[in-house]
Amino acid sequence: MQNYFYQDQQRKIIKAELLSTEAQRLAKGFLYFKNKQGEQELRPKKKRKVSDIRLTSSQIRKFFNEVKHLQSLCEARGFEWVEPLLKMLKAKTAYAANPNSQKIPKVFKKFIDDCIDNIHSPDDLEAFVKHFEAVVGYFYGEGVKE
């Protein structure tokens, strides 16, 4: 089984692209989509004919802060105590991505789901936090105004 976070599982070396090119690609995907002409277009703030909305800085901050809180709890109480709360994060993104009151784009939900599904240890959680931090940095680097 290929490891999601590491280029070297034994030495816990995080894949460099998770902190660079992949993080940048994800951040742009939360903000932009390809229109019918294949051009990159800013996602709408509110749902219209496009199937997905734009992720707001408030939403990414909310989820990143929750992940950082879970990281702190892991350090204080242990991974076994935090693991169910990580799984709960998937339920929270499912609720926020609900088509009837969509607050986050489906691509953001998929990002969270994929990462959570690959966290099996405190080291994996640490790698996820670093990856998410890089995504947040690139997200703000795009400079899109709310």
Largest sheet: 2 strands, antiparallel
User: Which strand order spans the largest sheet, edge to edge or round the barrel?
Assistant: 1-2
What's the helix-strand series? Answer: EEHEEHHHH
Strand content: 5-15%
Low-confidence stretches: none
Structural class: mainly alpha
The DSSP helix count reads 5
Helix proportion? 55-70%
Radius of gyration: 16 Å
- Tell me the overall shape: globular
Total number of beta strands:
4
**Residue-averaged pLDDT:** 89
Distance between the termini: 40 Å
Please describe what this structure looks like.
It is a single chain. With 146 residues, the protein is mostly helical. It has a domain of 70 residues. Helices cover 56% and strands 8% of the residues. It has 5 helices and 4 strands. It has a two-stranded antiparallel sheet with strand order 1-2. A two-stranded antiparallel sheet has the order 3-4.
Characteristic terms for this protein:
two-stranded antiparallel sheet, 146 residues
SSE order and pairing:
Blueprint: E1 6-8, E2 13-14, H1 21-31, E3 32-34, E4 40-42, H2 57-77, H3 79-96, H4 106-117, H5 122-141
Antiparallel strand pairs: 1-2, 3-4
